[in-house]
Structure formats: structure tokens, C-alpha cells
Design brief:
Number of strands: 5
Mean pLDDT: 82
Order of helices and strands: HHEHEHEHEEH
Largest sheet: 5 strands, antiparallel
Strand content: 15-25%
Strand order of the largest sheet: 1-5-4-3-2
Radius of gyration: 24 Å
Length: 176
């Protein structure tokens, strides 16, 4: 049985609001698709650079020098693999041969970021991970989370991270 109120609602949703029969369904499918696309791009914000022909200690030293050559000071170096090994549950199989995270900050960049939007304080300190994987300990990887390029400050942060990682990889190869 078709009620008058149901018919009115069906007409509003299918033709008046969206212009076609079943338009609402198409609208929501498109909306959900766009939501999934943007979620994928947000989740895929890690930049990884592989360093061949080096070892972990040399790559570590190259990373420290590359950060300091930008006039920045290291805030901390987190021994990530060791921390994970101490706190891991289960069988304890770790994917890393070695892994650490180097944190640093630029006061000028931090000030610019928070002037643009106070919540951007979450971008500081910047960090770059340095690691090898168990199955290939001769290949060192440098990785960082891209801050994106939606503001001028984020673009400068991305450029800084790119310069540091490229310089660190170059130093690691040259010194090995």
C-alpha cells in the first residue's frame, strides 16, 4: 500500500532534489566514493627514500649532519626498534633490523605553522625515521610523514624534509 506521504517523499528525493529517479542513491554513492578517495590519500602520506651502498651507522650520521646543516638542533633520537622489542606482545617477530626516529624542530617554521593555524602545532617536532628491514638489512630507508602543501608553512616543511632526506641519502652513499 502506497501512502500519500511516502509518495511525496519518494518524489522529493528522486526527482526534485537530485533531478533523476534514484538520484539520491547516486548522490550518496558518489559522495561515499569521494570520501574513500580522500581517506586513501590522507592515509598514504609517508614518503620513503631507499639508500643503497651504505650501512645503518653511516646513514644515521648522514641524517644528523643533514639536519644540522639546515641550522637545526636534534630534539631526540628514539631507538624505535629497541623500544618495540621491549614492549612487543605475541611472538616478538619484528620487521626491523634496526630502526630509529630522529626528531627536530625549526623555531621559524613552527612559528609560521601555528600562525597559519594553531592546530598545526601537531606538525612539530618534525621527524624522520631511519630503518632497515629484517629481510634486507643492507638497504637503509629514510621515511617521513608529509605535512602536505595546503599552506605556505606546510610547503616549507615539506621542502625542508625533502632536502634533509636527499642530503642524508647522498652523504650515506658518499661516505660508505
Amino acid at each position: 500500500m502506497n501512502r500519500p506521504g511516502n509518495e511525496l517523499l519518494r518524489q522529493m528525493v528522486s526527482s526534485h532534489l537530485f533531478g533523476t529517479p534514484c538520484g539520491a542513491s547516486r548522490f550518496f554513492l558518489v559522495f561515499l566514493s569521494l570520501l574513500c578517495i580522500s581517506t586513501s590519500s590522507i592515509a598514504d602520506d609517508t614518503v620513503v627514500v631507499r639508500v643503497s651502498n651504505s650501512d645503518f651507522r653511516t646513514a644515521h650520521d648522514g641524517l644528523i649532519e643533514a639536519i644540522e646543516s639546515e641550522g637545526l638542533v636534534i630534539g631526540s633520537i628514539l631507538p624505535f626498534r629497541d623500544m618495540l622489542a621491549r614492549t612487543a606482545v605475541g611472538d616478538g617477530a619484528l620487521p626491523y633490523g634496526e630502526a630509529e626516529i630522529v626528531q627536530f624542530c625549526s623555531a621559524l617554521l613552527a612559528a609560521e605553522l601555528v600562525r597559519e593555524a594553531p592546530a598545526q602545532l601537531t606538525l612539530c617536532p618534525l621527524s624522520i625515521a631511519l630503518y632497515t628491514q629484517v629481510e634486507n638489512t643492507s638497504e637503509i630507508r629514510l621515511a617521513y610523514r608529509s605535512p602536505g602543501n595546503s599552506t605556505a608553512g606546510r610547503q616549507r616543511a615539506e621542502s625542508l624534509l625533502q632536502r634533509i632526506v636527499q642530503r642524508a641519502a647522498e652523504l650515506a652513499r658518499l661516505r660508505w
